[in-house]
Every structure is written in C-alpha cells, then in structure tokens.
Write a structure and sequence with these properties.
CATH class of the largest domain: Alpha Beta
Shape: globular
Strand content: 15-25%
Number of strands: 22
Radius of gyration: 22 Å
Distance between the termini: 44 Å
CATH topology of the largest domain: Nucleotidyltransferase, domain 5
Structural class: alpha/beta
Length: about 500
C-alpha cells in the first residue's frame, strides 16, 4: 500500500491525504492555484509558505527566491514533491484579486461573492471577500452531467433526442448549490453575507443550466436560442440563500462561444491591446479569440476529445495513474505518472509530449504513421495506437486551422502576434515546446503564455463589476463570431496543418 501524507491548505481550511511523493503542482492545481509559467520555475506566481513540515529546496527555486525567503519557508509549488505532512499557506489567496497584473479597476464592496466556472467536465468555485479580493475557500468537482456524455455534442444529443435536458439541469443546479454550501462550511463565514454569484460557462452549459432548449445547437449553424445574460433569485433555483443574493450567468457571443472564453479575453485585457493577441481554450470544443482593441474575432472548432484524454485507447483524465508528461533524457523517453503510482492511462498533455518525443526520435513520421508496427508502449501497459495519433492530428489540425484563418482576416500571420494565452486545465499542463513540435501552436515559444483558469479569474473579477465601469459588456460589443466551417479556405488550410511538421529549431 502506498504511504499517505496529510496536506492542510490555509486560508482555505481544507485538509486531505495524498500519496507520498505526489507533486504539489498536481495537487494544488485542483484547488484553483494558477501556475503562470506552466510550472517551470520561471516566475513567482505559485509561491507558497510551508507553515509546518518540510519541502526540500530545489536548484530552480534558488534562481527565483532569495535566501531570506527560502530560510523563512517560502517555496515554489511547481517544484515540490511531498515527503511528509505539510501545512501550506497559499500566497495567491492572500494577494489582491488582480495579482496577475491585469489592468482592471474595482472598488471594494460589502459582503461576499462567489465565482463559478461551470465547465463541461469540471466545476470550480471560489468564495471571495469583496472588500479585499481575498479568496476564502475553493471547491472543485466533476460535472455530474458527465454521465450523459463526455463532450458537448453528446450532451446535446442526450438532452434533445433522449429528452434528458431537465434532468441535466436538475443535476447541475443541485451540484452547484452543494458546492456553495461547502464553501461556507470550509470558510466558517456566514452565508447571510453573500451578495452576488457570477457563473460562466460555454453556450451548452449556459443553456442547460438556464433551461433553454439546446437542440438547435446540434445542427448547422449551431446557434443557441439564446446566449444572453440570465439573472436569478435563489428561490427560482431552489437554493437556500437570502433573496437579496443576485445570481448571474454571464452571456456569450454565439454558437459555441460562451461566457467562459469571453470573460477570459476580458481578464487578459485583449480589448486594451494595440497589438494582436490570441486566446485559446483547449478542450473538446476548442475556442479561439484573436484581436486587439479595435476588433476581436471569435471562433470554435470541434477539436474532439483527444486533448482531455477521452477517445484515446488508454486515455484518462489528469488523475492518479495518468501519464501527464514525457521527457527525453540521454535518448531515453521517460514518462511522468501523476500520484507517483504505476501508469494506468495517459491524459492529453502526456499524449502531446509522447508524440512529440516519438516524432523527434523517428518512431512516428510526419504523416502520423508509425515507423514500425501499429502501436508504441509508453509505459507498460499504456500504449499509443494509430487511431490515437489520428485523433490528436485532427484535434490539433482544427485548432491550428482556426487560428490561421482568424489571423488571415486581419491580414496577419503567426509571426505578427504579440502574445498567445493558453487557458483552461489542459492549457496549464501542456508543454509549450511539445505543442509547437506537433504543430498545434505555430508561434515562437517565447510568445506563448500559460494563463491558468481565465474563466474563473474573469468570473472573480466580475464580482466587482459595476454599471459605470462595465468593461465586460463593452468587450462583447466589439466581438464578431465567425463560422469556420463556412470559410472557403478551411479545407485547404486544414489539409496543410493536419500533419505533423518536419522537425525544426525550437525558439
């Protein structure tokens, strides 16, 4: 049996057991901790204070933290391997809500707020003190609708053809209510102080939660009946909260462009940039925004489930036993397994890393075919098959094509882009070098930034949004949604980008 150690998180007041030698990066990401540099010890964004216990100092940390900080117990979470019981204070939750450097202004307000990212696969909620911006508690969970399908098209089909939309609505409303109760239980705050709840999500999640028929999103042009702002009182949702609590599900743009990607663009100040920026949310439904202060274009691509490990022969979520990354050392390909357990599957980031490594050593050719055989063993019993590679090619080809076509409207190419933001869980874990190697992101590596959960960050910022400084709704006015499937160049560009690139120098 694997040895267990206990982790206590402050000021969240949460305590739980994990396997000894688990990576702190993997643990804390599930609690909403952001890793701005992708967990590569190149910034101070994941700084934590070890209040009790011991976390060894690694060489990369010495380049970021000074001797005084290290002696006082400060560490980088991305560099920690848990060896004993720890009590950890999360620096991010004690800092201002704008600690990511966003140019966003807010006035302190009375009471508490809750920010919720309603994802197709996962749910995340934060309880926020609106006077200080401090996060008081965090809850994460799996979306209970997952039992009706792992991707949004399956959910739409189940909701309409099998008439399960009402049940899906009941499940998600009940689950979010449960998470809200748990936030107050773990924070010891009074629920009577709650004033505002902001929910963001893609258009399908929005429509199911709000009771809007999702059937029209199952066929071309995939437009929702409505993707507008919906405001509720707690009694309407069956939530036991004060009637003065305002519950808002923020609006999207169109088709599969929901409030999650829209508010992410707002959080990253795309509307204030003179230069072209790109925001990509990598998931089953890849969402892309390209633009600057003058114009922003949005599009979605049916990337398929490969990025999230679904649809892969031995694919799984980023959980214990999943191969999450692969490195090459002295010619050997070495997988990293979450939870320091034996490998039992591979998640999206691990798949991208593995294929990148096998492209470099020649085991996989540019067209995706194996040099020898019909599969490769990454770590027994985990294998990658020819079908797995094709699934990833289709997914990355769709994303790369979407970016290329949106830039074409601006008469720009990838080299003209100032900055590229990767959002969402997959965007946080993926190696930027591997993403470039497989042709998913055809940008210089120095321009690619891991942005964390921009949907949750934006929802948190929206808790302070006021009508007189309503930046969120201003950005919505300058966004144009494009249907990539109708673009005359889609087929040609996709055919060009679906294969893996010939090896090139990584910059």
């Amino acid at each position: 049996m694997t040895d267990k150690v206990r982790i206590t998180l402050l000021p969240l007041n949460q305590s739980f057991e994990v396997a000894k030698e688990s990576q702190l990066h993997d643990i804390l990401f599930n609690y909403g901790v952001e890793f701005p540099c992708g967990g590569h010890a190149r910034c101070r964004g994941c700084r934590v204070w070890i209040k009790q216990g011991h976390l060894p100092v690694t060489e990369p940390q010495k380049n970021i933290l000074d001797d005084d900080e290290l002696n006082k117990g400060w560490r980088l979470a991305c560099q920690g391997s848990v060896q004993n019981d720890l009590t950890i204070e999360l620096d991010q939750w004690k800092s201002d809500v704008l600690s990511d450097g966003s140019n966003f202004h807010f006035s302190p307000m009375d009471g508490l707020g809750i920010a919720i990212d309603l994802g197709t696969t996962t749910l995340a909620a934060q309880l926020v003190d609106r006077k200080t911006g401090e996060v008081l508690a965090v809850e994460t969970s799996i979306n209970p609708q997952a039992k009706y399908g792992g991707d949004i098209m399956t959910r739409i089909d189940t909701a309409s053809r099998l008439e399960k939309q009402n049940e899906m609505q009941r499940l998600i409303r009940s689950k979010l209510n449960e998470m809200i109760v748990d936030l107050f239980h773990h924070s010891n705050e009074k629920i009577s102080k709650l004033k505002r709840i902001i929910i963001v999500g893609n258009a399908v999640m929005h429509n199911i939660f709000c009771g809007i028929d999702v059937e029209p999103m199952g066929y071309h042009p995939f437009e929702p009946v409505s993707n507008e702002l919906e405001i509720y009182k707690s009694s309407t949702l069956g939530w036991d909260l004060n009637e003065d609590v305002t519950i808002e599900f923020l609006p999207g743009v169109g088709s599969f462009i929901g409030s999650d990607i829209l508010i992410g663009a707002w959080a990253k100040n795309m509307v204030e940039s003179n230069e072209i920026r790109v925001l990509v949310d990598l998931g089953t439904n890849g969402e892309i925004m390209v633009g600057n202060k003058d114009k922003i274009l949005a599009a979605s691509t049916a990337a398929g489930p490969a990025f999230e490990g679904a649809g892969i022969s031995m694919g799984m979520r980023a959980a214990t036993g999943a191969i999450s990354s692969v490195i090459t050392r002295n010619g050997d390909i070495i997988p990293k397994v979450l939870g320091s357990e034996n490998a039992r599957g591979i998640c999206g980031s691990g798949l991208v890393d593995a294929i990148s490594a096998y492209l470099d050593d020649g085991s996989i050719k540019a067209d995706g075919r194996f040099l020898n055989g019909e599969s490769i063993i990454v770590s027994d019993p985990v294998v990658i098959t020819q079908k797995d590679i094709r699934g990833l090619q289709l997914a990355k080809g769709a994303i790369a094509t979407g970016i290329r076509l949106l830039l074409k409207v601006f008469d720009k190419t990838e080299k003209d882009v100032e900055k590229v933001y990767l959002s969402g869980a997959f965007g946080n874990y993926i190696s930027k070098q591997s993403a470039r190697r497989i042709g998913l992101l055809n940008f210089p590596q120095k321009k690619i930034t891991t942005a964390g959960n921009t949907a949750l960050l934006g929802a948190k910022m929206a808790l302070f949004n006021q009508s007189e400084i309503n930046n969120f709704y201003e950005i919505r006015e300058i966004i144009t949604h494009l249907d990539l499937s109708m673009h005359p160049d889609f087929t040609d560009v996709f055919a060009e980008l679906v294969n893996f690139p010939i090896k090139r120098e990584m910059v």
